[in-house]
Each structure stands twice: as C-alpha cells, then as structure tokens.
Amino acid sequence: MSDDGREHLTYDLFGTAVRELAQTIADDGYEPEIILSIARGGLFVAGGLGYALGVKNLNVVNVEFYTGVGETLDMPVFLPPVPDTVDLSEKKVLVADDVADTGSTLKLVHDFCAEHVAEVRTAVVYEKPQSLVKCDYVWKRTDRWINFAWSVQPPVVQREGQVHDA
What we know:
Distance between the termini: 16 Å
Shape: globular
CATH architecture: 3-Layer(aba) Sandwich
Strand content: 25-35%
Oligomer: single chain
Largest sheet: 6 strands, mixed
Number of domains: 1
Number of helices: 4
Order of helices and strands: EHEHEEHEHEEE
C-alpha cells in the first residue's frame, strides 16, 4: 500500500503473493487436478499457481461483468467458449482469479463447477469484504482499490468500445 490509499501489486510483489497463496493451498492439503482461471486477471494467478502446485491442467473461462471503472452488467455472463463440463467431470478444481470484489463472477464460475466436479475451491490474491463468495484461499483481504501491475497502464492498442479499467 502507498500513501494514496490504494493497494499496489507490482510484478515482484505478485510473485511473492502467488507463491504464498500456493503454499497456503499446499499446507491445507488440497491437491487440485485442474486450475480454472477466470480471464483476464485470473490467468496470471492460475499460471503461477500451476507451476507452484505442479498442476499442468489449466483451463480458462471468460466472464464479462465489468464494463468500465465501477460499471458492471446487471449479472456476469460467460463468453464463449464455455468449458466443456465433461473435461471437469469428477475432478478437484481450483478456481483462480486476481480479486473477489463483488464476488459475482466467482459465484457464477463456482456454481457452474459445483454441479459437475468432485470438489471446487477458490483462490484469489485479494478478497474484498463485500464479496458474495468467501474464498477458500486468499493472499490478502482489503477494502481498497487495487492497482494491478498488468492493468495500471492503458492498453498499447485501444479497441473500439474498450474502456481502460485502472
């Protein structure tokens, strides 16, 4: 945290956060067979956890919820391609994301998995107090705005209709 009242997750600190998060999962004895990342922020987390936990089976689910800074759809929605449930069937799945803010996205993915898998747990770098989902594994809880290393700068390419979310 800096004096501007925000959390600042640098790439170096992210490495520490993911390693500590992985250690917490390992210490708990949970051995996921699949890590399901919520794109986009969860991609970074899932990759780091996959290496640290020795899990090579990483999958991605795309969910749209935030449309701008503080602006959301009424409900989160899956974007294609939606994971095939046969690939998840009877597996131990760890859902990974960067932050559980409202928790709506995590809830959507968790509930989708719960119907098809042997066990589903959630892991995030940050969890906010208002999150609908109380995650199984959290590196840090905060009520502050988070500046992630990968999203604080505007995109190199600005696509039509795209809003910079930092």
